[in-house]
């Protein structure tokens, strides 16, 4: 069994997982990059009768969190001043006031790669970001009219995508060699140093949609392969950047996005009504 990330020989670590209540699956780990892959994953056609699993009751709550974190992250991404974390923690109110005066909006093009129904793109545009949608496997419901129109994107987002990929290396090549973004911001839950037991909830055998899993070593391998710096904000939210970032400062702000988002959002002008006028003009 070859690793789908680095092509090293992977070994079986778990067996006896029951997918969709009727398919047997095994989990293999790569000794080199630590990628975990499910085999044989021959149930995917059944798993994707709908793109979003019926069990996914948290999709809106997660997107509300994502849009806050993305807004804070992109607004401070070029912030040059290094501020000690203790100062930030003790003087949060002052820092929020400072943010209002010093930070500028991120006005470069954004692509949501694997954007699902388009909910995140719509929410980002409602804040004021020039975000576009791309997904070859899901119908665009919420971001119609704002599909991908070019290959020039400074930032690519990919939320809740990497764990679904049947051929991850192909898609990673598409992102990093095709689009060549300066920033890649994405989510996937890392599994830690040890292979989790088969009851780990993120295996999600009841839906059958999660078939690839990563830890910090896997992400570092991918970042190094394509020439990026890598930081994790937490175990589920990650950033690849072409330039070295002040990780402690960025992590401080993004982890407190509920607190800082209202201030950061004021830097932007919502595209909700502008987009509405564009869509009206497109149909008359």
UniProtKB/TrEMBL annotation:
GO terms of biological process kind: methylation
Keywords on record: Methyltransferase, Transferase
Entry protein name: Methyltransferase domain protein
InterPro entries: SAM-dependent_MTases_sf (IPR029063)
Pfam family, one: Methyltransf_23
Highest taxon of the lineage: Bacteria
Gene Ontology molecular function: methyltransferase activity
